[in-house]
Amino acid sequence: MLTHPMPDPVALQLGPVAIHWYGLMYVVAFGLFLLLGRVRIKQPHIAAQGWKKEDLDDMLFYGMLGVVVGGRLGEVLFYQPAHFFANPIDIFKIWQGGMSFHGGFLGVLVAMSLWARKSKRNVLDVWDFIAPLVPLGYAAGRIGNFINAELPGRIADASLPWAMLWPGVEGPRHPSPLYQALVDGLLVFILLWMYSRKARPRLAVGAVFTLLYGCARFFTEYFRVPDWQVTVAGLPITSGQMLSLPMIIAAIAMLVWTYSREGRAPARA
């Protein structure tokens, strides 16, 4: 059995300014977006669509706003509305953690839609382009949660080699942020990157990302202490699973639509 290493959440102190590990993970996420984006631009079917490095820099700005605003509002509305409405100043303390992926996901969709309109690009092409650039950034965020000792896992068998004593929580726990970094982040990235290396029908890549993440998150939620849960047909459904179900259903519908429209959507060059 392991013990949470409890690293200092402050990575660097510069006088009165504290740079937190959680914030640095966002820097890592945005850096990965640019790095992977430059690789993706060189793929023949993407290069044929006329994507440029300058597009990445512009999209990153919009994406950052979408992630931060959407992620924080999602945390406020989906998970802790009572706390934040009682303590509204806490909404702005994003360095303490508390960012909803589902909220950030919606925020990025809106931001990329605005960028697509400004750039006169088809919004579905934009979503397809950025989808493979997202999962590793998500994984970085979950590592930030782990450093902050957030999102404790459910009780684990003490004989599990990686069961972990979590600060402030009784009993050995599953290190759920690491599970989500590996499954929802790294595994989804590998599968999606392989799928997106070839030309696919418009919206297919974005839909596959939505499906993979929704399914992965639904699974890893079984190892995480839920923020809240409900019972449906006698089965407990956590908050994360409730928010992931619409993603799974929408993704399946999008895949059926994109592969069946006009008989079969043609792959783009």
Automatic annotation (TrEMBL):
Membrane topology of this protein: Multi-pass membrane protein
InterPro entries in alphabetical order: Lgt
A matching Pfam family: LGT
Enzymatic class: transferase
The UniProt record lists the keyword Chloroplast: no
Positions with a binding annotation for a 1,2-diacyl-sn-glycero-3-phospho-(1'-sn-glycerol): 142
Listed EC numbers: 2.5.1.145
Superkingdom classification of source: Bacteria
Record localization: Cell membrane
Main location: membrane
Pathway: Protein modification; lipoprotein biosynthesis (diacylglyceryl transfer)
One GO MF term: phosphatidylglycerol-prolipoprotein diacylglyceryl transferase activity
Keywords linked to the UniProt accession: Cell membrane, Membrane, Transferase, Transmembrane, Transmembrane helix
Transmembrane intervals: 20-39, 60-79, 99-116, 203-220, 240-259
Similarity remark: Belongs to the Lgt family.
Protein purpose: Catalyzes the transfer of the diacylglyceryl group from phosphatidylglycerol to the sulfhydryl group of the N-terminal cysteine of a prolipoprotein, the first step in the formation of mature lipoproteins.
NCBIfam families given in the database record: lgt
Protein name as catalogued: Phosphatidylglycerol--prolipoprotein diacylglyceryl transferase
